[in-house]
């Protein structure tokens, strides 16, 4: 928790203005600010246009509705919306108070006072006006109602309890709550958690609507039923993360295992406990109640029932099998499936995979609808053409995630290389084999057919055509060349465009704050301000007066960029 515990505020002067001594409810009622004296407060900076805010607000509502019953807690909404209609529509979903939209001066003042650089942002104050934390969003996400009164002491107490629970972990400690000692099945039958003790138990974190879960669930059903048929002492418990009860019911009716009840508070607690970062996740709890593996979903995808009993010894055995397969990998083994032994060129002309043998092949996972894919494509085309001009043996195969044939055709028309046909079943195998979790992704296959790297996109972005043939040896050569290039440059310097000292730093990708162009490898960098200069901009003697202001003018103060769980000011 990033605390500001030494800062104390008077609630009236904090939230009022010379023209206003009240806050609003979403029905238009006014509430005097001095009625909040002696209460714990949450200052919620949010906006209707912000996706992460829309996701977090229902969670905060649930926590507020529980905590507000105590009578000593209130939340005040400080909007970043751009018009009154958007503010009112969003505020209508909130059970707490708000600064009026019209009071932009107070909203701006609070933004600065509480260091709001991204939203959602939640500052929590105690009854005396002391700032408990400005990381309230993280506290609510992680601890919910249990975190109340959200002090550092309370959060530390919960962390200590979690550590104690980890040391004494059992199936009961994981799945039993004060109000429930059972799990359920689709027919409504209740099974005591105590009946799971001594078994190997898989905790299946899933959302029905999530595509990867929909693909994985049938595979897990197949493995589960085979293990049951073999008499193995194995059980699965669904940990539902669905927001929609009908989706949960549909999922539970389609599987043969047990589940926690819909919206059970233990579900979120287990997601935090196991530091859930991806879906699907299947955590394995051994017969002794201890965690055997944090996620065996990929192992089940790759090996099926052979991955059981999911022990370290079994995974060591599977690793050896996988290494042997990789050593024997050929281009045909990854691109040929039954009678699908071709890729296509323009106008759908079929090119036998055998014609690619002896070349370095780049598998390009991409889609027309994906902005980063469209941004990366010109760089890849430029590198491809330069490599081919030198007579090097290279080919690229486009593997599409487009949603329809028309989009595929339009995107592929701008590429000078080959592709798998749209909707080809080999895409699913290749995506799983190379763990494609995001696009664009570029996998380099050596002329021998073995995988060189799954990070070829980064190499093309950094080095362009020079990255060919994408081997470790070639990358080491480039890095040595880059080290040589930097010899003689000052390690630190001062520049007229920035007040702090700039340090020569390796930076993968950045945008120069002088010329506003993309840079790679080396930057003169200020970490405190996230300020970059190309070496050429930092070292050239020409007067660049005004370029900093020009660059700044291109970025509106009101421009926001959303990334993951937060929207930040550009």
TrEMBL record:
Pfam families reported in the protein's UniProt record: C1_2 (PF03107), Thioredoxin_8 (PF13905)
Q: Which reaction does it catalyse?
A: [protein]-dithiol + NADP(+) = [protein]-disulfide + NADPH + H(+); [protein]-dithiol + NAD(+) = [protein]-disulfide + NADH + H(+)
Give the EC class as a word: oxidoreductase
Q: Which residues form a coiled coil?
A: none
**PROSITE patterns per the record?**
THIOREDOXIN_1, THIOREDOXIN_2
Residue intervals of the Thioredoxin domain: 13-164, 171-324, 325-480
Gene3D superfamilies reported in the protein's UniProt record: Glutaredoxin
Could you tell me the EC number(s) of this protein? Answer: 1.8.1.8
Under Gene Ontology molecular function, one entry of this record is:
thioredoxin-disulfide reductase (NADPH) activity
Keyword terms of this UniProt record: NAD, Oxidoreductase, Repeat
Family membership, please give it. Belongs to the nucleoredoxin family.
Q: How is this protein named in the record?
A: protein-disulfide reductase
């Amino acid at each position: 928790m990033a605390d500001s515990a030494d800062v104390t505020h008077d609630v009236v002067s904090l939230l009022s203005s010379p023209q206003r001594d009240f806050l609003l409810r979403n029905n238009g009622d006014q509430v005097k600010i001095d009625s909040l004296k002696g209460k714990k407060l949450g200052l919620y900076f949010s906006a209707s246009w912000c996706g992460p805010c829309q996701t977090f607000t229902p969670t905060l509502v649930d926590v507020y509705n529980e905590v507000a019953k105590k009578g000593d807690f209130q939340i005040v909404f400080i909007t970043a919306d751009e018009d009154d209609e958007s503010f009112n529509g969003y505020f209508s979903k909130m059970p707490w108070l708000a600064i009026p939209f019209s009071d932009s001066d107070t909203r701006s003042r609070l933004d600065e006072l509480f260091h709001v650089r991204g939203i959602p942002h939640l500052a929590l104050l105690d009854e005396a006006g002391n700032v408990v934390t400005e990381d309230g969003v993280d506290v609510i996400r992680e601890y919910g109602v249990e975190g109340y009164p959200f002090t550092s002491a309370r959060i530390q107490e919960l962390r200590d309890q979690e550590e104690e629970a980890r040391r004494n972990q059992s199936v009961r400690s994981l799945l039993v709550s004060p109000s429930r000692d059972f799990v359920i099945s689709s027919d409504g039958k209740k099974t005591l958690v105590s009946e799971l003790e001594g078994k190997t138990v898989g905790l299946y974190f899933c959302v029905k609507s999530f595509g990867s879960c929909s693909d994985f669930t049938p595979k897990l059903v197949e493995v589960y039923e085979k293990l049951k048929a073999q008499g193995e002492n194995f059980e699965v418990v669904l940990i539902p993360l669905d927001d929609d009860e009908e989706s949960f019911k549909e999922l539970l009716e389609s599987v043969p295992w047990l589940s926690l009840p819909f919206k059970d508070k233990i579900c979120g607690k287990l997601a935090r406990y196991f530091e859930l970062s991806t879906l699907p996740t299947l955590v394995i709890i051994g017969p002794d109640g201890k965690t055997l593996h944090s996620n065996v979903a990929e192992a089940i995808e790759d090996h099926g029932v052979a991955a059981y009993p999911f022990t370290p010894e079994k995974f060591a055995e599977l690793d050896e099998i996988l290494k042997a397969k990789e050593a024997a990998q050929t281009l045909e083994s990854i691109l040929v499936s039954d009678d699908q032994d071709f890729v296509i060129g323009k106008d759908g002309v079929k090119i036998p995979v055998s014609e690619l043998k002896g070349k370095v092949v780049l598998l390009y996972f991409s889609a027309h609808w994906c902005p980063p894919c469209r941004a990366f494509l010109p760089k890849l085309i430029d590198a491809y053409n330069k490599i081919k001009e030198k007579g090097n043996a290279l080919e690229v195969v486009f593997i599409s995630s487009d949603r329809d044939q028309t989009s595929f055709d339009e995107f592929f028309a701008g590429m000078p290389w080959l592709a798998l046909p749209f909707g080809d079943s080999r895409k699913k195998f290749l995506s799983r084999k190379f763990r494609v979790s995001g696009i664009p992704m570029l996998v380099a296959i050596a002329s021998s057919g073995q995988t060189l790297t799954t990070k070829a996109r980064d190499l093309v972005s950094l080095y362009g055509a020079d990255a060919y043939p994408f081997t470790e040896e070639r990358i080491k050569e480039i890095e040595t060349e880059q080290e040589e290039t930097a010899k003689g440059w000052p390690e630190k310097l001062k520049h007229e465009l920035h007040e702090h000292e700039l340090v020569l730093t390796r930076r993968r990708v950045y945008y120069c704050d002088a010329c506003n162009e993309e840079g790679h490898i080396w930057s003169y960098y200020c970490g405190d301000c996230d300020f970059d200069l190309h070496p050429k901009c930092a070292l050239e003697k020409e007067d660049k007066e005004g370029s900093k202001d020009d660059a700044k003018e291109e970025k509106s103060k009101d421009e926001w960029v959303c990334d993951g769980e937060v929207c930040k000011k550009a």
